Amino acid sequence: MMTDIKKQDVDIRWQVLEPGCVVYGGSTAVAFNTGEWRVDTPVIDMEKCKQCLLCVPACPDGSIPVVDQKRGDFDFEHCKGCGICVKACPFGAITMKAGEK
Ligand code: SF4
Ligand code: SF4
Hints:
Number of helices: 3
Distance between the termini: 33 Å
Bound molecules: iron/sulfur cluster
Strand order of the largest sheet: 1-4
Helix content: 10-25%
Number of strands: 4
């Protein structure tokens, strides 16, 4: 049984926590909204974007969707705001702004 991380708070006891280093299955990113951790948010300027897609594999969270060979806006359900995509873009099309969105 997986612990529902949304129900964890300071009152939770260690006895109900899952043991560490256990992989329960694939695609757990679908179940967990890691975007809640974000403190800074990437912003794309579509005027500057050349659709080279270099930012897509650079994102460690797979948070840059591609549809019909074109990137879309960020998946803010899972983007953690690491800023790696900003460094990956050779055209300066992505900037970071403070705040979770
Ligand atoms: S800020 Fe990080 S997690 Fe978010 S889209 Fe860019 S590379 Fe991915
Ligand atoms: S790397 Fe920059 S120019 Fe290329 S698709 Fe991503 S945002 Fe657009």
